[in-house]
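Case study B.
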Amino acid sequence: MSAAAAVFILAIVLIVLALVFFLVATILELRKIVAGLDRVIVHVGGIVEKSAPVNEIVGDINANLDAGVAALEGLLVKKAGMNDAVGLVEGLYPGAAAAGLRDFPESKDVVPPRIGEVYTKGTLTLARLGREAPIAAASPRGAALRNPAYGSSAARALYPAGREPGAAELPRSPVIGTDSPEQYERRDDIGQPRKKFPAKQS
Amino acid sequence: MTGVWIGAAILLVVVLPIVVVLLKGVLDAAKSIVPAIDSIATTAEAGSKDLDAAALLLTTQQQVKETIAGVAAYGGSLDVILDDAEPA
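Model:
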């Protein structure tokens, strides 16, 4: 064998060795990739399985919440009127009146009244709820608002024995004012400049 | 004989370096994919764990239904006992 042929064969062998080395290393890396992808597929399968019913459930929850919001908005507008409803919403959530009520697009055009007006109306509504509502009228003791003694009798029940013994001998509460029977002299120094005391000598 | 020498020289000087460079590029690319796959697997595992709470949506769904039913009942009662707003 000539030297040229030997060098040629050596070159071929070197190329084959390089091919073997790098291809085997690449195969090993590809196997690692396959193993990693298998793990990914397992977890992605879990994600798909767990998230499959989410759309349906969330859609149902949103539908229920939409119905609740629509009912509450409708009730609020029906009972308080559009202006007061928007004012109440603005009072509770400042700036929310700009968005308006969802089922009442015309509410965006309402200028929200001051919360004080709405609060007063709400207070009266609550008061009516407790004292004028039909449910209170059905009480066996009668309508509370139409029976003034009914309100004080509750406080009187705290002292079932009646007035404290000796209460009549207790001094009366003082009467004050310009027409009070007991007049006291006004002190002259009130309103005058404060007295200046001499400086202390140490 | 000269042709054999030239062929051997070309193999050693041209072909072998090209083969080595190309195969090394493929190997480096394959090696760079492995950490990315590992991080994807870790992320997918964490995402899968996060979705364990998705089953609680069934409880939320039921509670929302009950809450809305309660709101409807209260709303109906309020509708009866409260006067409607006076028409503007």
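The first helix of chain B runs from residue 2 to 50. The remaining cases will be described in the next quarterly update.
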